[in-house]
């Protein structure tokens, strides 16, 4: 029997708890951080309620959500257009290495290619996550040669527990 086709769709309010589950799992798997569920659920709900913050896409196989990502926006004055940033990527363990991320990415790419207000697609990846880097390179993404620098506000430390 062949692989069941994927359906890519925008996330809906009914996906909030599942998207929060994905964010919690991803933070633990990639950084061994425990996030505050209530905060994450409010964060997901804020994106769904205010599309100027971003959008989520989910991948379904046989009626079950098996992956998701979020797109946020960064204005480029150099290009007079937005970069679309892919964030909060999560593929369920049983669906990994089966083309789910590729399908999600291609849906984002196809939409971006049709718009004159999008100058490109970016994402960030953990420095030591070589498997993810290989996945991104395989779909045509390139190392942008930037390092991400940050300063986290003190109140955020209370929400994220490093273990």
From TrEMBL:
It comes from Pseudomarimonas arenosa. GO terms for molecular function: acyltransferase activity, transferring groups other than amino-acyl groups. This is GNAT family N-acetyltransferase. InterPro entries: Acyl_CoA_acyltransferase, GNAT_dom, MshD_Acetyltransferase. Residues 6-163 form the N-acetyltransferase domain.
């Amino acid at each position: 029997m062949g692989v069941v086709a994927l359906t890519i769709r925008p996330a809906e309010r009914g996906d909030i708890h599942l998207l929060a589950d994905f964010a919690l799992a991803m933070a633990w798997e990639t950084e061994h951080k425990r996030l505050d569920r209530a905060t994450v659920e409010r964060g997901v709900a804020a994106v769904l309620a205010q599309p100027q913050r971003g959008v989520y896409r989910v991948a379904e196989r046989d009626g079950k959500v098996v992956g998701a990502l979020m797109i946020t926006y960064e204005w480029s004055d150099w290009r007079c257009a937005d970069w679309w940033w892919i964030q909060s990527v999560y593929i369920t363990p049983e669906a990994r290495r089966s083309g789910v991320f590729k399908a999600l990415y291609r849906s984002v790419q196809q939409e971006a290619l049709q718009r004159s207000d999008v100058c490109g697609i970016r994402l960030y990846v953990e420095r030591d996550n070589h498997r993810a880097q290989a996945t991104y390179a395989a779909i045509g993404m390139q190392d942008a040669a930037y390092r991400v620098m940050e300063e986290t506000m003190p109140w955020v430390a209370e929400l994220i527990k490093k273990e």
